[in-house]
Amino acid sequence: xxxxxxxxxxxxxxxxxxxxxxxxxxxxxxxxxxxxxxxxxxxxxxxxxxxxxxxxxxxxxxxxxxxxxxxxxxxxxxxxxxxxxxxxxxxxxxxxxxxxxxxxxxxxxxxxxxxxxxxxxxxxxxxxxxxxxxxxxxxxxxxxxxxxxxxxxxxxxxxxxxxxxxxxxxxxxxxxxxxxxxxxxxxxxxxxxxxxxxxxxxxxxxxxxxxxxxxxxxxxxxxxxxxxxxxxxxxxxxxxxxxxxxxxxxxxxxxxxxxxxxxxxxxxxxxxxxxxxxxxxxxxxxxxxxxxxxxxxxxxxxxxxxxxxxxxxxxxxxxxxxxxxxxxxxxxxxxxxxxxxxxxxxxxxxxxxxxxxxxxxxxxxxxxxxxxxxxxxxxxxxxxxxxxxxxxxxxxxxxxxxxxxxxxxxxxxxxxxxxxxxxxxxxxxxxxxxxxxxxxxxxxxxxxxxxxxxxxxxxxxxxxxxxxxxxxxxxxxxxxxxxxxxxxxxxxxxxxxxxxxxxxxxxxxxxxxxxxxxxxxxxxxxxxxxxxxxxxxxxxxxxxxxxxxxxxxxxxxxxxxxxxxxxxxxxxxxxxxxxxxxxxxxxxxxxxxxxxxxxxxxxxxxxxxxxxxxxxxxxxxxxxxxx
Amino acid sequence: xxxxxxxxxxxxxxxxxxxxxxxxxxxxxxxxxxxxxxxxxxxxxxxxxxxxxxxxxxxxxxxxxxxxxxxxxxxxxxxxxxxxxxxxxxxxxxxxxxxxxxxxxxxxxxxxxxxxxxxxxxxxxxxxxxxxxxxxxxxxxxxxxxxxxxxxxxxxxxxxxxxxxxxxxxxxxxxxxxxxxxxxxxxxxxxxxxxxxxxxxxxxxxxxxxxxxxxxxxxxxxxxxxxxxxxxxxxxxxxxxxxxxxxxxxxxxxxxxxxxxxxxxxxxxxxxxxxxxxxxxxxxxxxxxxxxxxxxxxxxxxxxxxxxx
Amino acid sequence: xxxxxxxxxxxxxxxxxxxxxxxxxxxxxxxxxxxxxxxxxxxxxxxxxxxxxxxxxxxxxxxxxxxxxxxxxxxxxxxxxxxxxxxxxxxxxxxxxxxxxxxxxxxxxxxxxxxxxxxxxxxxxxxxxxxxxxxxxxxxxxxxxxxxxxxxxxxxxxxxxxxxxxxxxxxxxxxxxxxxxxxxxxxxxxxxxxxxxxxxxxxxxxxxxxxxxxxxxxxxxxxxxxxxxxxxxxxxxxxxxxxxxxxxxxxxxxxxxxxxxxxxxxxxxxxxxxxxxxxxx
Lengths: 627, 309, 281
What we know:
Chain A: Residues 1-23, 292-370 are annotated as: Disordered. Chain A is α/β, with parallel strands linked by helices. In chain A, helix 4 runs parallel beside helix 7 (192-204) and helix 15 (469-476) runs parallel beside helix 18. Chain B has 13 helices and two strands. In chain B, strands 1-2 form a two-stranded antiparallel ribbon. Chain B is an all-alpha fold. The radius of gyration of chain B is 24 Å and the shape is flat. The longest helix of chain B has 33 residues, at 86-118. Chain C has eleven helices and no strands. Chain C is mostly helical. The longest helix of chain C is centred in the first third of the chain and has 36 residues, at 72-107. In chain C, helix 1 crosses helix 11, helix 3 (72-107) runs parallel beside helix 6 and helix 5 crosses helix 6. Chains in contact: A-B, A-C, B-C. The interface between A and C is medium-sized, with 26 and 21 residues.
């Protein structure tokens, strides 16, 4: 679009040359800005924003997403904005390219891009000045078009010739093998990593000096994430300026020069990455860092506040001292409060699974000499020629937390379904509480069903949308209790309230619908429902993957408490090695349907024997903090 | 493989439709001979001819199979009222109806595309949505009557009735196109709205693409998918609507023949028109399903599994 | 008329304005009164007045008079009973049959499902109007044939919605996971599947009712419905058509009433749909 406000850096490069950034050098920007507020170092300011406010008008009160933040991005820097969902980090990033939304109201005392105040010719700036990379390339690239067409579109919009060669060069520059063939393929035909590379190539196509990456690795497996981070680091080393948006401090710590921590639209703390991570000054940053589960956090509470059940004996109504656990400030408990049973979890390998201090339970498995709750032998599941799970042997003992870790497609969820009895195995068998579990008709399994519960990643879909919280939990209670009082009062029984209190929720939620709850509350309700039939084993399939790190911390603490007080065994399935290392006693590492390594969690993670385990551990972005 | 499966399904549906029509004939009160003969000349000779032609003296199963076999060959029986094979009757009258239907379909699709793409601003949407609601909720014959009284009776721009020439096609085609356009616009707009919420639209905008280009190059193709599903339904409106529109505007065509056959209980013609329309429906629907594969690469059988990392 | 009977009712539409919903609900209430107690609102629909034939709308005759001097408004009011009754009964037939067959297809074996689904396909291969004409050709013109024909022709739509909804609910996490509480399959179906499948049906039926009324008007316009002098709307339009060049009100005004009724049903139905979706995602 020919516009009178044509940008000075409108990319009209020499058609023979690659885009500037591809050659690793940048056209120097106009020097006029350097004299004015150039920040600590005298490099060119690409973005300079003061007192930025972004508001979304809404019928029930406006949403004030960004509340007066200041942001400078210098040429060649990597700046990261970190925050949990709803912190305003993505809105901030999108505002820089004028994409906050058609109804967004943006105010600021200064808004300069490339040294110029507005109004901006956004269409030239987008792609030309700043490239945008979003989370999941499967939906962030048009699924109906080839990736070659998607990359070429950027070139066409910015009037850059020689498209075919450039598309190939761009794909090569992001290390996509066989670029000519890949360019003709659609996003769904590419693996997650290749897709993300193609998306990055399209963002870089017109040679923008600034690359904005909004959660660029969140949808990826850990090994792929590591490769994409390498790619971004490579671009950064070549001179590209990066603005990284992430919920994950560890991801950020690997790349960023400077970190800004956002919460509720404010920047609560900012500074050089090393300083901020090692010596955080703001309490929220401290909480965030403390909430990250890892090897270092084993046996320690992650969240700022104890859940109700940790102070309450099992099966007794908890005093409702903490009916609403949400505001973390209300507690004075230091965040390093040791869990009540540190000693147990510290020495899992010395234990055979049955531990002291787990007396208050009357479960059937008490009578089992071995204490084995579930045992899978030679489990195999195939769909036609495609083997999803191959010869998996697995044992969970009473009171034990067993981690099952693997990347997407490793078969870990299929293992959960086989154990839960949703699908029959192709071969192999499962014994539950010492009796056969697979090979039975559902009718014969039914009486024992309550002893085995499941918690899934997305609790919203696990609740009947028409039912209230009270009714949802009451459904899981044994029929005797239900008959006594629930039928009359529709889910308002004492038993239901006791369960809610155990997971740290108040009775005020009884009449809510699942949709009206926050993500953390939903997962707590799911846990309460799983506890209701007093199971001996709960299979947790990625139960915290959809949660923010501080909420994840509370849920992990709650699960640890439940094991400690009830002696309920957990099979904890996750892609997150940090979560597993924090919580589990033993771990199984799965890849392509096969368990490649298993053992006590410290042994496996500190001294991995299998090369895949090593690769996994190496790929985990470590949080470089000295605690 | 998908193609073969789809074609087989189409055949099964067609068979079921022909069977349903045949059952309707059997279910008619009175003897089958009475039904077939309708208001036509009733002589012992014709009766004998019908019994012989439809094989009514043979077992029911044989009759049914015979009916299917002849239908498969395109032999749809004989109208005793008109004294000629039904196939000829249909072939004679299909022309004007086809012209009307195609003109209306094109006009409706064009109008829908224009409206869905151009009315993106809130006030324009409001106006367009109201228009869609009204044309979809109005009986088509009322639309025809109103157009007729304005443009033919009052203004005299178009002939009141008849099927000759382009001028006589305008009002019927517009009448039939309006409800089609109303529904298609709703579906297209909804599809565009959904697509515009997708992350790839943010990516496209972040490349510097203008709104119109995002709409036409990205969102519209996604919006076409649900619209294509409606093709079969569209055909139903067009054929059913043709019967009414031809009556209102006094046009010759398949609709008039059908109506006449219904009023005089000329079963072979009614049956043939119904089975014929089911045939066209199945063909169109199968084509629409296959065109899905052209629009959406995700539905195509994968030549290679995702590779690389 | 075969209008929009099989169109996807799940289309996400803009929220109708509050005033619009209010007006639509008011009009529906009026139509209901007209259908139940037409005498409250209007005089004798059959009272001919040879001295006032084909008179335009006036204070005495708001909608004018027809070729026999009958008050058009009185006839429209009395016609509400016919049209609504035909629409309601046809929709009831369609919803009931669609519900049963859809549930059967959704809950049974995959071969039974395949057979049922193909027969829904076969049934919807006939354009509604042609299917209805086939019925009339077999059974002769009349209200009963009309109702049955519209009911059968619109049934596949409901059956398909119910079937696919049943599949969605059956595979929903909350149903697969409820297995863990040791309840029987029957109980799961009764407690979780049925209510979640049935939920959207009343709203669909309200919108579908408008379309059944349109279809009935179209068929009786062709002379396939209630016979004169019954004040049925489609039949009135058909009668008035002969006088179109001299008395537009005898056709256009009853037609506008049909349109308003259908619009009102659609607006109210969509409003309920939004409310419903808002409460249960």
